[in-house]
Amino acid sequence: MKEELDNYFSGELTDREKFVLFDKVQSDEALKLDFIRMQNTVALTRLCSQKGDEKIADCKIAELEKRISRKRMKLIFWKTIRYAAVVALIVMNAWLFFLIERSADDAIAFTKIEVPSGQRVSMTLPDGTEIWLSPHSVLQIPDKFAANERMVKLDGEGYFSVAKDTKRPFVVHTEHYNIKALGTRFNVFAYTKSEHFETDLLEGKIEVSSQSLPENVVTLRPGEKIILKANRLVKSASLFNNDEEYLKNGIFSFNNKRFGEILEYLALWYDISFEIKDSAEKDLLISGKFRQSDEVKVILKALQGVHKFKFKEDGKNIEIYR
Question: Taking the model in full, what pTM does it have?
Answer without folding.
Answer: 0.67
